[in-house]
Amino acid sequence: MSYDVPPPSGPPAQPPNSAGPSGNSFDPSSVDRRDWAILGIGFIVFIFSFFNYYKWDYSGFGIKLSKTWSAWHFDHGLFIAWLAMVLTVAGAAVLAVSLFSPAVQLPAPARQLSFLAFGAGFVLYVIAIFAHSDFGPGGGHDFSFWISLILSGVGAVVALMRAQQTNTALPGPLASLPRIGK
């Protein structure tokens, strides 16, 4: 004996990974390679924040001492480097939100916020070169700090390029910056 089961009422179920209710699905190939670069820079700066930002070495009188600090330490004036790292990562995060979740309303255009965050992060990294307390002759900035400084500068330039390519209005005197890239 067999029983006929009636089909369920309502709209048919969509298979996984298909277009959503709006008919849009995320296609990674639709994201510009410079946007991927911005996202990658933010991720790499975040990873490097856990490594040595500052170091201090002492060797004398038969004693060897060494101390390192990551971006997550706030003593000795290191807060500036931490804030620079946070702004750089936030610049990438804002762009990620706009790319992967376009329904989220941001307080300003995402590319404008991304450029401003990367630019402020870069400026703070430059200030951090001079602003930390004196570590003495055996101390200073370590490899993660310098890599993060360089990457935040590159991120600011790429974010500016993308803002200009997408005709995003920049605030105040930044609107008159010369166009870079294609």
TrEMBL record:
Membrane spanning residue stretches: 36-56, 76-101, 113-131, 143-161
Protein name: Uncharacterized protein
Keywords: Membrane, Transmembrane, Transmembrane helix
Ranges of biased composition (kind: Pro residues): 1-15
Region (Disordered), start-end ranges: 1-27
